[in-house]
Design brief:
The protein is α+β, with helices and mostly antiparallel strands. It has five helices and five strands.
């Protein structure tokens, strides 16, 4: 199963986009591939998929600093939609940082540039972190205890 939650293996799913073998056909595919890029710590892909007007605000080093201090465990896509100019994807990305479960809940906005979907920006929703104990179910939804999975 791919990091993004799709049933295909990573190599047949998001890695096709990350490796440049294919391009996402819509914003949801791009968002899922960006999530997977965080999981495999590919900062170059994440920077390259920012809209041109936002790309200068982000560096590979900053992205990797974050990606290396957390462990992403689950992605939930809530809703995708579009208007005449943009596509939107609302999602929750769960990650573990210092034995604390954090959730990034965002409604992202994507724009097409040069025939490719790019991440423009997003609105974040407040989420409270939660301490994960060793015997709690793992937040990745594997069905295992946290200590036997991501703990």
């Amino acid at each position: 199963m791919c990091f993004c939650g799709q049933a295909l293996p990573f190599e047949q799913c998001c890695n096709l986009f990350i490796a440049g073998q294919s391009k996402p056909e819509n914003a949801e595919q791009l968002m899922r591939s960006r999530y997977s890029a965080y999981c495999v710590k590919n900062g170059e892909y994440i920077v390259s998929t920012y809209a041109s007007e936002k790309r200068h605000e982000h560096t590979v080093e900053d992205i990797l600093l974050f990606a290396n201090q957390v462990e992403f465990v689950n992605l939930e896509v809530i809703h995708s939609d579009q208007d005449q100019s943009f596509q939107y994807v609302e999602f929750k990305a769960s990650y573990i940082e210092d034995q604390q479960l954090e959730v990034l809940h965002e409604r992202s906005r994507f724009i097409k540039e040069g025939g490719k979907w790019m991440y423009l920006d997003g609105n974040l929703f407040p989420c409270e972190g939660k301490k994960v104990s060793r015997n709690d179910p793992c937040p990745c939804l594997s069905g295992k205890k946290f200590k036997k999975c991501h703990g």
